[in-house]
Structures are given as structure tokens and as C-alpha cells.
Amino acid sequence: MKGTGRIIGINLIILAIYAIISAAIASQDKSGYAGVGYGLFMMTLLAIHVGILLILSIVFFVRKDREKGKTYLISLFVILLVGFSACLGGMEAI
User: Model confidence over 34-52: pLDDT tens digits?
Assistant: First the structure.
């Protein structure tokens, strides 16, 4: 698992970027439902991100590149865990 840390790191940076953008967009709402808006927007982006990682993992497993398949599968679970936590925490903070 040579590039595991690099791939997970890149995906965490992508997660942080769209979490910051989501928070900036949601903080503009003054109606009192900014947290809900943040949660829905973040969950949508998180689902797209996890879906892409799942597809990449399946593609690499089909191509018999088990190392990259495992790496993207591990990355999927890390992003899902951190992203879901950031989503719930952001809903409370905003």
C-alpha cells in the first residue's frame, strides 16, 4: 500500500475544501435554518464523493489492481467517517 496515505490525504483535502465552501454558503442564510441547509448540501456532496470513490475502487478491483482498489476502499470509509462527523458538527455550529 505504497500510495495509501497520499490518496487518503488528497481526498481529505477535497473534503475540507467543499466543507469550507458549504459553510460559507450556509452562513449567508439568516432565516434560522442555515444548519439544515448546510447539512443537506454537505450530505449531497459527501454522497457524490463517496460514490466516486466506490466506483474507482470497483474499477481497480475489476482491473486486478488489488492494491489501488483497497486504497480507494479505505479512503472511502475514512471520508465517510470524517465527512459525516463534519456534517453533523457543522449543523450544530452554524
Answer: 788 888 889 999 999 999 9
